[in-house]
Amino acid sequence: MKGLVLKDIYNVVAHAKSLILILVIFSFAFQPIQCVCMVAIICGSLISTTFSVDEYSKWPRFAMVMPITRKELVGAKYVVQMILSVIGATAGLFISGISGLLLHKIELITEDINPLLVATLMAVFLSMLLGSIMIPLLFKFGAEKARIVLLGAAMIPAAMIVGLYFLLEKLGIVLSDTVMFVGLIGLIILILLWMYCSYLISSHIFEKQDL
Amino acid sequence: MENIMEVKNLTKQYSGFLLDHVSFSIPKGTIMGLIGENGAGKSTTINGILELIKKDDGEVLFEGKDISAGKQPKEDIGVVFDEINFYERLTPEKVGKIAKATYKQWNESVYQNYLNRFSLPASKTIKELSKGMKMKLSIAVALSHDPKLLILDEATSGLDPVMRDDILDIFLEFVQDEEHAILLSSHITTDLEKIADYITFIHNGKVLFCKEKDELRYRYGILRCGESTFASIAKEEMLAYRKTDYQYNVLMEDKEEARRKYPAEVVDDATIDDILLLYVKGEQAK
User: What range defines the domain where residue A13 resides?
Assistant: First the structure.
C-alpha cells in the first residue's frame, strides 16, 4: 500500500503547485475559519485528480499485476484522501493564521485561536466526508463521467450542515459549548462510520471490474 | 521439462467473443510466443492469466499453485504491457521508489544497472522519453524484482528494429538461467522466429496449436500448385489452404514428404507469418 500512496502523492504534487497561489488569495479574501475549511476541502478533492491520472495511464491494470490486492488499492485511495485533507487543513490553518494576524482579522488570544483550531479539526473531517462520498462514485463512473455526479456530491456535506443547523434551531436547542462538543464528537463518529461503509462500497465496485 | 506455468481451459465470454477453453504450458527455461490476428484473444488470454478479468472457467497454475494464491506469484512475475502505465510526470527515479515500496523482492542495484544499461536518465520525466525508452523503463521495472516469469503483451510493438533487437537480446539473456521463462505475445512474428522456443497460435478465441517453433519452421511447408494437383491432395495431408488467382497455397505438415510426393510442384519453407496468414485468411482442411 505504501507504493500506492507514494504514487498518488507524487502525482498530486505534480498538479498541485498552482494551488499555492489559490491558497494565498483565499487567505486574504476570506475569514480564517472559512479559508481553512475551503482549503481542506479543495485539497481533499484532489483525490479525483489521482483517479484521472490513473485512468490516463491505465494504472489500475498495472497495479493489479504488482503484489497488491484490489482491497489494498481501494484502501490506499482513502488513505491518500485523508492525507490530502490533513495537509489541506494544516496549510489552511498556517496561512490563514498568518494572514489573519497580519490583516488583524484575528488576534493571538484563546478566543480567536481556539475556534480556528476546532474549525481545522472539523475541516479535516468534512473533507474526509466529501472524499468518502466521491471515492465510490469515482470507482463506479471513472473520473470523467463522475464529474457531474461529484458536483452533487459536494453539496451533500454542505446541505447536511445547513439541515442540522435548522433542525437544532427548530427543536430549540441552544448551541452551548457542551452541545457543540457533543455534537462535534457525534459528527466525527458518524463520519468515520460512513467512511468505513464507503470503503466497503468502493471495494465491492472495484472487485467486480474487468481491467 | 518442468512447467513454470500451466493454463488450463481458460474461458471468458463477452458479447460477440468467446475465449474458448484456452490451454497451454510454459516449460522453465523457454520462451513461449503467443500469436494470432488482432482480436484473436491474445490479450484476453493474458488478462485472464493475470486476473485482470474475471474468468468464467479454467485455472492458471504458477509453479504448480493457483496463481491467485497470495502475493508471491505477483512478486515472481514481471509484466510489460504495450505502453507504460506510470503517469508521464513521474521520473524513472520516482518509478523506482514506487516499485521499491511495492515489491518485497525489489533490487535497487539491478534497477540502477538497467537504467544505466538502457541510458535512461533518472531525473527526466516519462513524458520526455521516446516510446522505445518508455518501453525500456517498463522492462527495467519488470526485471528488477527478480521475476521467474516475464509476461510481455505486445511489448516490442512500435519499436524500431534496432531497439527491438536490443530488447530481444535481454529476453534471451533472461531465460539463459533454466529456471526462468517468458510468455511473449506479439504480432511481429519475426521477433518470435528469432527467440521463441514454442508457439501458441490463438484464432477466434481458440488455441489452434501449441508447438515447438523449430517444428513449424523445419517441418511445415507451403505447397504451391494448380487445381489438378490440389484436387489430388488428401485432406489429411494439408493443414490449411488458400486459393489465389493463379494457384493454391497449401500448408503441409511435412514439407520433405510433400517434396517427395509432388516433385513437380514448388514446396517453400513456411515462416510463422505464412502459417498465420494461411490459417486466418485461408480455409482449414482438418
Answer: 2-208
